[in-house]
Amino acid sequence: MQANDFSELLEKLGTLERDAHRYRSNGSVEDLSYGELIAEADRLARGMHRLGVRRGDRVGLVLHSAREFIPAFLGCVRAGFIAVPLYPPLTLGQLASWAETTGRMLGTAQASLLLADPPVAYTLRSLRDQIPSLREVVSIAELPDGGELPRARPSADDLVFLQFTSGSTAAPRGVRVTHGSLWANAHAIMVDGLNASSEDRGVSWLPLYHDMGLIGFVMSPLVTQTPVTFIATLDFLKRPEIWVRTLSEDRGTVSFGPNFGYALTARRTDSIEGLDLSAVRVLGCGAERIQPEAIDGFFDRFADAGLRRTAFLACYGLAETTLAVTFAAMQDSLKVDRLEPARRSTDDDASGLHRLDHPVSVVSCGRPLPRHRVSILGPDGERLAERRVGEVFVEGPSVTDGYWDDPEATDQVFVDGGVKTGDLGYLSEGELHVVGRLKDTIIVRGRNFDPTPIEIAAGRVDGVRTGNVVAFSVPGDLTERIVLAAEYRDGDPATLEAAIVRAVQREVALTVSEVVLIEAGSLPKTTSGKLQRSAAREQYLGGTLGRIRRRTDTSALAC
User: Fold this and answer.
1) What global pTM score does this model have?
2) H/E element, 258
């Protein structure tokens, strides 16, 4: 189906009766054809228009249900409204702090309308007094019927939506996603990265307010008319096994998830009886640094259900590049590069701007998508040779238009037609390897350490909640001290603290100065579920990082 932008594509899709989406939530299943999906999107666009929303206006979306979110988002695209997806509260007990954050993002976006789930719409109506641009806060059911359907024929430079970044190392910013960057990235993902077709079936539990779920499984599959099954995110978090059960039942062929999704599903699937994963040809992993242990554990767990290791697909991307930047080769399985200190001391191994002084296992994220370029920048902005670690820099048609209403941040990050990602990595044989975040680097006695191996070592200790550990440095008397915060599962706290210190010393050759054990669910996370090291550090320094018991060793400064 030929089209030049998503507006034209949605017009064409509206004539198809082919299956588009399946929605699974709380045990119920509902199927929609493309024609039904677009008809619902048009109905919602008319309702928004009757409330005074016009082309270029921003519309906030706070909707748990994919069945409501997706037509609302597509309605905005159809009418030329700029959608602003925002994360909903996980529990009603979080409403106060969540409403404050949501209000800031709506205010930044200067939204004129907010569509929200009924329980939170009532709470958020008070925001109209704080945000001059916000005229209405309504639920989907409260949108009026009838009226005119505005038709938008956007240019490539027109905005299609604002993607607020997850804020893993800074306050969330509204990324300006244009029609041109979205169209380019969607084609690159489906055609070049996945070689997808209408014969595939996607399966996704990913939240739709985040780019991997929204772009990867709502917008991109439209290009190839690939049907998708959507699992409610909360259903997955309650019962991760539903991911592999749905892949089996719906004969899913393509799915993605971050590390924690793989680790959680493998750990909390009681039985593989009745599972048939032989149809799965792609299981992608991105959004955070890929940990080989999590991926290997998942494929080991489900190998007897017909899951092939060659289905694994590593990738790399970020909101500032719409979504995807690199894809590993199809059917290439997991490729791990082991960086040893002795090797890295030589000129031809990964070293340089942010040299890491401990062994690191790094997964290859593959090569840049066609028409995209990845470079590694040194401290003065110079492009580094292969196997030299520096800041990842991306150029290409998927690079977005900067940050909404933040010219200073835009000028700092979007330079020379590309984007400085803030990620540390290197190239080897043209493939990107990501080793950490620039701002997360721990420096002790002049030596640079990536916190991830420290966290992995601590996470292996029995009694620690796997994947719920952060390491960071704080000022000490003579040098920076390493603090490790870990969510506590069970066992004697004093014994657990000592075991953590020994594990880090043994596996990373570092001495942890302080261990902070905290209650499950206490570590700060982004809206996409990534741990926030910087926020944890700030809480620690401010004395607000809740602790069960602490171990302090002010003399443990040697590394």
Assistant:
1) 0.84
2) none
